[in-house]
Amino acid sequence: QKYPPKKRVASNITKERMLKHCSSVLLFLVVATSGSHHANNVVNNRSPYVTFGRPRRHLLSKSHLVGTSAMSPPSIIPRGGGDDDTPSPPPPTKITTLIFDIDDTLYDVANNFTCHRNTHGATSFMLKHLHFTSPSDATRVRDHYFEKYHSTAKALTVAQSEGQLPPTAPPFDLRDLAKHWVDELDYSLLGGPDRELVDMLRDCPLRMVAFTNGPREYALKVLKTLDLLRDDGGGGVFAAEDVFAVDDVLPHCKPEAGAFEKVFRRIGVRAEECVMVEDSMKNVKCAKALGMKTVLVLGTRVRTEEEAVINGEVPDERHESVDCCVRLVSEMRGRLGSLWEGCPAVFEVT
User: What is the DSSP string of 190-254?
Assistant: First the structure.
């Protein structure tokens, strides 16, 4: 009764010392049992359970004490950095669709059909339908815009909008160009069907799509000449509804992303599901940037410098955008045999 205040002070001091002592014991147990990684966390005051001087309140909650004895520390869950925590790489996206360019891809550039189309085919149309007075003037205008847009149809559309056609020229109509090419070009230069190519593509279980910067009727004529257009008798490779031309994507054209995206929407696929088979580096780069796998077709002869400039850069098989390179499309099965094993397929180059 003489010293109740002193006893109460002594009692409070004793409680505080006991609390510090318990904290020290608990800190020792955590350091001793949690390994160097967690010990460093504790020493650096990053433990989810302990701070210096006093335990965090949630340490004593029931959820952390389930399955522990009175003398054992609660279980500590590692906070990353271990081998088991490293996320596994996502599985490769399965391929469902092969998209082929047509000109200089489904036939060899060495047959010179493209050279014939880009010279006589283009200039004769411009002289006859757009009132150019000389082949040299027509070639100059066509090549200037073709180098930029990689499509005669898009080139002449823009040339007219910028006032580069003769004053007497009628409005450019893509259907006129398509009809002129269907009627006037020498399709014998294509050399007829390549049976090895036709049979190889028919054996592939993936969806086959053709995508060209040429007019639609012209594209169908080329595919039919090569026996690649599916017919009612079950022959061919490409169904008419799976053939896309510049008509389908204007005002865009390859290598613009908007052109590819229109095709993706029409066939209902994502870019990652597709392989783009192309001879143009511009188009290969765009396809790769969109997420597609790419196959560059070189042909059996080296393009001239003039052809390379007009058609959009010299083919470069070492470029990072090129996943696989072949001389001819008929070599694809030997390099990408996994695409013939089922649908969907894995893209594996051998």
Answer: G-S--HHHHHHHHH--SEEEEE-SS-HHHHHHHHHHTT-B--TTS-SSB-GGGEE-HHHHTT--T
